[in-house]
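Journal club prep, notes for RB
We'll compare a predicted complex against what the paper describes. Inputs for the 5'-O-[(L-methionyl)-sulphamoyl]adenosine case:
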Amino acid sequence: MPANTNIPKPFYITTAIDYANGAPHLGHAYEKVLTDVIARFQRLCGRRVHFLTGLDEHGQKVQQTAARRGISPQEACDEVAVLFQALLRGLDITNDDFIRTTQPRHKEIVRRYLRQLHDAGLIYKAEYTGFYSVRQEQFVLGKERNPDGSWPEIYGEVASITESNYFFKLSQYQGWLVEFLGENPDWIFPRFRQRQVLEFLKEPVNDLCISRPKERLAWGIELPFDPDFVTYVWFDALVNYASAVDATGLWPADAHVIGKDILVPPHAVYWPCMLRALGLELPRRLIVHGWWTLGGSKASKSTGNASHTLDLAGVYGADAFRYYVMREMNVGQDSDFSEEQFKIRYRSDLGNDLGNLLNRLLNMGARYSGGSVPVAPEAFSGDGVPERELRALWDATAPQYLEHAAGYQFHAALELLWGFIRALNRYTEHRAPWKLGKSDVPADRVLLEACLAHLAEGLRLTAVALTPVMPRVAARIQENMGLSPATSFEGQLEWSSRAAGSRLAGKAILFPPVDA
Ligand code: MSP
């Protein structure tokens, strides 16, 4: 891309790349949906977007899992890649690229960066004796022991080993990083996470061991300056964000979406220091979401249940799943996934509130206005108090909705939108067009047409606003109203008479009842 252009760079957004040592679960699915909602929101706001996701395929866990199954690590990764790509399709994720860290395009860049840092004297070899956790693939410090001398459970088996390895001079960037974070308090969303990083940086950080001897781990990217070693999996994985867009002009990323467990130290400490050392720009923001639990326990640990939650997307539709996770999770906080609550939201928010509203419009449009949306009567507009209130509610809702969404407060945005949807239902009950339709009084006819026109416009606006979260449902609502699905918010979120005269479908069931 030419540098001297006035066209803004596409909004470049990424997810974490998932470990290729198991099937996708709820945590993976949520992160894809969240990132997709942000990507779609940006597109509707008129930005071009580049959306990257992918798989983290190297490391000990992948090697061990493959060995247990008696297949090669690459075969194991290929199988898992199919599952993750199916997940993306199943959830209507609009990623533009899918990177796998075993691809030549990635390995080449990792080696280039390593060579550059090595040549610059920022990587050195040293002998190190320390405690090593196989499960976490990292050295751990003695002070991390429990009071009784045992190791925290997350480390699994911990052994004392002496090893020669290569180290990246991470420690020399600590002062710079602290300063950078101080000057950019919004680099990490939500803000309290940034404070946690600063807390972590109060202690001196060690240089980062970026190699693993091949005798211990063969499944990795060989160091360009020493064939006896492969690259530490985190150094390898973090580079994906840059390697995937190398020489495209897309770097820096506008947002990395990640879970709270991989903020400190990988994304908030290693990655900015690596980039700084390489002379590359930093990502503009880290968006850090919380954890889903299932009945209080970690969703990714109880894998059986966690993959069952993904079945709900198959049964109830991707949009219902997308709605549920976006409605329930306050980005940054933790949330508990409850199938019971999922079903309640499906029946009540989706079926009763939204689905019925569309059916009311289609039904009454067919019955009383020849199957099309009436024009709101001229003499009437602005006269009826309920109509005026409805329009005023939308005028207040739309900017707040956009503001919440721009600040990743999707749960609040949806809550607000549902306030409007419920107001549309109340409005319809208040006007009771089914009664007006039976009346011979001309004023009732005027009211009836006003009511249908307002209902239609309210639904149209709802569908446009809902598009990033529920793209299919939004498109279906618009299609059933004889409208083509909005591809931009521009001029589409103001109360108008855009739907007037359009043909209504006879019937639509957006959220069919699902039997247990
Ligand atoms: N491979 C590393 C990331 C490398 S990024 C350069 C990794 N993989 S992971 O498969 O364990 O996790 C991938 C993402 O899923 C992370 O952002 C993680 O936080 C997220 N989740 C995994 N389980 C989760 C929940 N239970 N809830 C929400 N998200 C969680 O870490």
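Talking point for the session: The longest strand covers residues 123-133.
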